[in-house]
């Protein structure tokens, strides 16, 4: 698609002036923005930013949740040829220093007082910041910092300029070309400073359009935008594809109302990482466990039919008349009400990505009539590389290459990608750019995988993380930590896992339990506990988690490649892994190396065959204060199984 985001805005405003472009829930009521109203707002904001001195090619930071006025701000910056840089709204102030200085940011538009305080806290370390505009004025009435002003002030100054120069805005939009830089997204920085991924209008819109064609998206779709706009996954679904297709994006009132808003909106096109789908299913199962015996029996009977028949119906396969009748009855009694309760009654296409999703979880959603599929991509590829066709959705693949994508495998099993959606460069980092982009245009994904007989891509792990067991009976066996971690995370009672084993003679893991799921499990067994740390160290919980570990080992024993990755020992951590403590990225990916160093005493204890180990850990609270959590952790053995030899 050879166009730009601002040009698409004008196109929708001309073709469907009164149609809703965005909706925002405010004080419990959904307030629509038509394409005409949105265009008028973008023009005023662009004029205000121009008046304030924002120039073509300059970076402007945007920090906040999904808000129509922040979307308008990104469009306004792009209309001027400037480059919006969304940052994570839950990042602590110190995490913003590098992106702000690296991108030489002068202008910042933020959502509220929390984000203003964050920028003012680091202003002495980011001397370039000269203008900070805030959308929500609550709590900011008495602030008098230099360069700090309300969003409404920006609109007022722009309104006057736009009124006096009626042709100016369209002339500015016309100057912007598809090959111009449209946005910059900072990577999560798993191993050092984050990198600024530079994308053009052309690269983002090419992938947005390819994805829309694949799933036959139209302007009638409804989307709920609730994930961080700084994550390209959210950005591509609720910004790039929004402007490519012209559908409606709904912005929740707050993070705490998302579940309610999901039911009210009833999106037709939905995207969430596996942890969201896991959380929804966990809440359903907790409610069912607390239900009466008659309801539980009906639910179990209907779900048995759904698991057997549902996926086949979703894939368009032939199903017997009796099974169809049973499924229809189950749909009336259980599946339909359940979809409605989850907010998925109108979902036509649902995607998950970012991490592997458990087969049971994947099958559950498809069995109750939700078209859940997987995709493969990254920030550097503008997300869309592989997608699953409607009738070929599988838990163990991530789909087929879509329009405009070429895939090949390097000698070490690394997946290489070529498409029009690749990054232009890493900002101010030519060495890193040269590492991932070959001279002939192939992108090194750093993922190891292969294409199966049906042309579907399977991911094993990150190339750099695939290691070898050294010593012992499994000497030389392949070790894929992420593969092992994901198998454990498929259990709803396990939230996070860190697997260790490269260069060692056996595999050990550190586990985070899901506090809500395990807490409910404990309460039904009259097992008292006083918070996460206490619950995590209960002998009954250890025995329960051991069963999960040993089920994974039994499964791994049947895998000829990874039978040597069976887990010998495990422990349950005394605290939940947290991005504020540096243990997770802002996209909730485990920082395995950091954790192995931080909890070195636990790693040593696991491999020294100790049965318990005392540890004290510093933690950071949401208000910025620090404290510590200490506990004596149990370390437990797990049964391993003799590998099943492949048939000759």
From TrEMBL:
Keywords: ATP-binding, Nucleotide-binding. The keyword NAD does not apply. One of its GO terms (cellular component) is membrane. The keyword ATP-binding applies. Residues 11-427 form the AMP-dependent synthetase/ligase domain. InterPro entries: AMP-binding_CS, AMP-dep_synth/lig_dom, ANL_N_sf. One of its GO terms (molecular function) is long-chain fatty acid-CoA ligase activity. This is Long-chain acyl-CoA synthetase.
